[in-house]
Design brief:
This protein has 10 helices and 7 strands. With 249 residues, it is of the alpha/beta class. It has a 7-stranded mixed beta sheet, with helices on both faces. Helix 3 links the parallel strand 1 and strand 2. Helix 1 crosses helix 4, helix 2 packs across helix 3 and helix 9 packs antiparallel against helix 10.
């Protein structure tokens, strides 16, 4: 996994910046019922999406992140609204928030148990009748059937821990039922051959040692592609919403 303390300063610029954040926030807000007055944005990172969520009229947003440098940047954007904390042990009481979001978090978990723990914690701090919104199938979203994806096809990949079907099972185990789905565009994240080779060398592809022979072979094949600096299509990210059952149900 990347060191997000080291990534913090370049995170926004390397991942689509404001356009991507705007698309993500709009998609999350589109899955929230009215009235939703309080929202917890778990793994809020630098706060770029969180700030967009907080701009929604009548919605009070709290962000939480486990990485100090990320949380510090988020706190600069939303003073007084950011908390340092682990998504697997959220520092909030039960039944606190009308809504909880995890945008680009579940895919980072090391295994299914940790993914289930995050979903469970989100359910715990969600009030009965509240809504949980999360991205799913993040890695698959980046496969846009481009020539770059053809080159990368032989690479080893770990089983996705954020598969929509698995997340739905974890949600059901914690009293949450499906409540909607959406997709949004990852603006600014279309890969070019050169940028993908750079990502290989810096360890972005976690199953490929950046100094190993496979990384070298893939980088050479990427270097042979045309239009080295032309981005291929943007990824399309998936969202799922779940409603926490009321106690009467």
């Amino acid at each position: 996994m990347l060191d997000y303390s080291e990534e913090a300063d370049r995170y926004d610029a390397s991942r689509g910046g404001e356009p991507r954040a705007a698309a993500a926030a709009a998609a999350v807000l589109g899955l929230l019922p009215s009235p939703t007055r309080t929202l917890l944005d778990v793994a809020c990172g630098t706060g770029l999406v969180t700030r967009r969520l907080a701009a929604h009229e009548g919605l009070r947003v709290t962000g939480v992140d486990a990485t100090y440098r990320m949380a510090r940047m988020a706190a600069d954007r939303l003073p007084g609204a950011i908390v340092l904390g682990d998504s697997r042990r959220l520092p909030f009481p039960d039944d606190t928030f009308d809504a909880v979001s995890t945008v680009w978090l579940l895919h980072l978990m090391p295994g299914p148990e940790e993914t289930a723990a995050v979903v469970g914690e989100c359910a715990r701090v969600l009030r009965p009748g509240g809504t949980y919104v999360t991205t799913v199938d993040k890695a698959a979203s980046h496969d846009v059937c481009s020539d770059i994806d053809v080159v990368l096809a032989p690479r080893p990949v770990r089983p996705a821990v954020d598969r929509a079907e698995a997340v739905a099972v974890y949600a059901a185990e914690h009293g949450m039922a499906p409540a909607g789905r959406s997709r949004f565009t990852g603006h600014g994240q279309g890969r070019s051959p050169r940028s993908t080779a750079d990502d290989l060398r810096r360890g972005w592809f976690t199953q490929i040692p950046p100094d190993g022979p496979l990384a070298a072979r893939l980088a050479a094949r990427l270097a042979a592609l045309p239009d080295q600096d032309v981005p291929r299509p943007h990824p399309r990210f998936g969202l799922r919403a779940f409603r926490k059952r009321t106690r009467a149900a």
